[in-house]
């Protein structure tokens, strides 16, 4: 055992039996049990794992009592060679242990960034959640492994994901833990600082409550200026807020024209004021003719403006942008930085209208489907009832056939007696008519039996249909 303790990291011991590892003296190594696959993977015994894979290829799917697989042990202890061997053997990367953690999460917990990258390339899903509703990014933030977070961000992990138990984002957890470097890393990766937990607290509030005012100040400063100034993707409201915070001194000028921004932040209370702010007051007469006030104007789309008589594209685009800015509570000033944001806002308004129409169409379709289902239920009830009556009619026809057969037998007896002259009152002509009539009745009953047979399929292609066979309703039957 002393020798094992002094050289326990030597690879020469990796393939030795368990008795050597347990320090049992006087035991024959040849008769001693070898390392199991889980132990071999945990200590990085490449050859032992390879030998086991040759004996049983399905060993990669086996789990121990804790739900751990061979790949999980190799990922947890960062044995890259064993992981490569297991991945070549198609070891599943999506299996989870009893805690809901997969191999990627276990590698993230231990900060094995190179193993994390190997598992991601092998197809491990970044957004898988464990029993705590955490993804791999939450484990990386909680463990404080900055290099692992960088690796996850490199492969486009959802940095703003939220655990559905506490309602916290990775940025909130980093702020709560007081990890300034992690907070900065997440901010640079695109974490949204305005998200709130179920209590309505942002990451700034969480950092303050946890006793980290410096981190709260860092997040606040980032919220105001970001990495390289305002971003067009933040929308017009955020752009204007950041511009106001960063450049409150003098508005931009173009040539000798100085734009007037004194009334840009004044929220108009009527349509004329709004059109005057965007420089389109000349179109007020058109809206007066159409009886359009501010409330109606804010619901118009580009097609509605065209129907009102505004044919020029430029004024229509300005109006739709003003409507979009009104609904997003953004100022009505026009700046080059907001052009792209205006375009997105207008497209969102149009998509919202289309979505509403699609929802209405979907609701109408659901109503029609419900009506058709109800009609189908009623129709199936009628069909079942008709089949029941058809079966009863078939049974009655069978009884009638038996009665007709008995009558035919009696008629045959009377005919025989008439021919022998034993009954002088019986007229042979009458007996012949009775026999012919009974034969015709029997033929009609046979036809009715075929039509009412429940075992015969019914439908337009059924060759037993009366119209296709030319059946008539017994016109020669005597009255």
Describe the protein.
Among the domains are: 271-334, Transcription Factor, Ets-1 (DNA polymerase, domain 1), CATH 1.10.150.50; 344-469. The longest helix has 82 residues, at 339-420. The termini are far apart. Helix 7 (103-109) runs parallel beside helix 9. The chain contains 23 helices and no strands. The chain is 57% helix and 0% strand. The chain has 479 residues and is mainly α. It holds the Pfam family Ank_2. This is SAM domain-containing protein. Residues 341-375 form a coiled coil.
Which descriptors would you attach to this protein?
DNA polymerase, domain 1; 0% strand; mainly alpha; ANK repeat; disordered C terminus; 479 residues; single chain
Residues in helices, as a percent range: 55-70%
Strands, total number: 0
What is the structural class?
mainly alpha
Kindly report how far apart the N and C termini lie: 117 Å
Residue-averaged pLDDT: 76
Specify Rg, calculated over alpha carbons. Answer: 44 Å
Instruction: Report the order of strands and helices.
Output: HHHHHHHHHHHHHHHHHHHHHHH
- What is the beta-strand fraction? under 5%
Estimate the global geometry from the Cα principal axes: flat
Low-confidence stretches: 1-15, 227-235, 241-266, 460-479
How would you characterize the largest beta sheet? none
Provide a count of the helices: 23
């Amino acid at each position: 055992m002393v020798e094992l303790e002094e050289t326990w990291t030597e690879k020469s011991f990796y393939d030795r039996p368990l008795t050597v590892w347990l320090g049992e003296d006087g035991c024959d190594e040849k008769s001693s049990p070898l390392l199991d696959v889980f132990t071999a993977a945990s200590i990085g015994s490449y050859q032992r794992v390879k030998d086991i894979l040759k004996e049983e290829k399905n060993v990669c799917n086996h789990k121990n009592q804790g739900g751990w697989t061979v790949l999980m042990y190799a990922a947890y202890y960062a044995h890259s060679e064993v992981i490569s061997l297991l991945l070549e053997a198609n070891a599943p990367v999506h299996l989870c242990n009893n805690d809901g953690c997969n191999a990627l999460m276990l590698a993230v917990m231990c900060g094995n960034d190179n193993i994390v990258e190997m598992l991601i390339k092998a197809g491990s899903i970044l957004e898988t959640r464990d029993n705590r509703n955490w993804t791999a990014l939450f484990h990386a933030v909680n463990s404080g492994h900055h290099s692992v977070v960088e690796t996850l961000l490199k492969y486009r992990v959802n940095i703003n994901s939220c655990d559905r138990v506490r309602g916290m984002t990775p940025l909130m957890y980093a702020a709560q833990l007081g990890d300034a470097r992690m907070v900065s890393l997440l901010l640079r990766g695109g974490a949204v600082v305005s998200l709130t937990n179920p209590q309505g607290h942002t990451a700034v509030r969480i950092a303050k409550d946890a006793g980290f005012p410096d981190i709260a100040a860092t997040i606040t400063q980032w919220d105001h200026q970001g990495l390289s100034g305002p971003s067009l993707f933040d929308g017009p409201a955020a752009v204007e807020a950041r511009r106001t915070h960063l450049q409150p001194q003098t508005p931009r000028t173009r040539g000798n024209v100085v734009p007037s921004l004194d009334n840009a932040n004044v929220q108009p209370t009527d349509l004329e004021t709004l059109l005057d702010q965007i420089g389109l007051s000349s179109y007020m007469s058109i809206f007066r003719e159409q009886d359009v006030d501010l409330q109606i104007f804010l619901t118009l789309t580009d097609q509605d403006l065209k129907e009102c008589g505004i044919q020029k594209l430029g004024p229509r685009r300005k109006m739709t942008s003003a409507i979009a800015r009104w609904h997003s509570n953004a100022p009505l000033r026009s700046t080059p930085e907001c052009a792209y944001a205006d375009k997105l806002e207008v497209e969102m308004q149009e998509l919202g209208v289309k979505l509403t129409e699609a929802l209405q169409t979907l609701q109408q379709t659901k109503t029609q489907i419900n009506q058709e289902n109800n009609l189908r239920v009623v129709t199936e009830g009628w069909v079942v009832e008709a089949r029941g009556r058809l079966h009863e009619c078939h049974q009655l026809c069978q009884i009638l056939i038996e009665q007709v057969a008995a009558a035919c037998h009696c008629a045959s007896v009377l005919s025989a007696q008439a021919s022998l002259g034993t009954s002088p009152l019986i007229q042979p002509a009458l007996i012949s008519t009775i026999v012919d009539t009974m034969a015709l009745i029997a033929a009609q009953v046979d036809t009715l039996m075929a039509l009412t047979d429940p075992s015969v399929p019914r439908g337009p292609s059924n060759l037993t249909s009366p119209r296709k066979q030319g059946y008539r309703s017994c016109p020669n039957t005597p009255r």
